[in-house]
């Protein structure tokens, strides 16, 4: 991941920061870009996001006046879980089949890996 990519967990609180150190008297504004739509957000160097949802994922850009300072890409992920995997083979001449139950519908970026 690039240093301008931020990972947030579904349901968690997160604060995006425009800069670590900068002039304290500058008015920082934020814009969120999601699926081609732009949304103006509260001002300030820190942008608090509460109870993250999948819909919060997108690009957040901070400005001073009309000057773009930084863009951050927010990815919202579900916390990892360890599945209960069961594997079996119908007979010696069949492949091994592994499966696991889902607790909920997987999010769009969900991946599964099986190491044998």
TrEMBL record:
SMART domains: IG, IGc2. It holds the Pfam family Ig_3. PROSITE patterns: IG_LIKE. This is IL6RA protein. Gene3D superfamilies: Immunoglobulins (2.60.40.10). It comes from the Eukaryota. Residues 11-73 form the Ig-like domain.
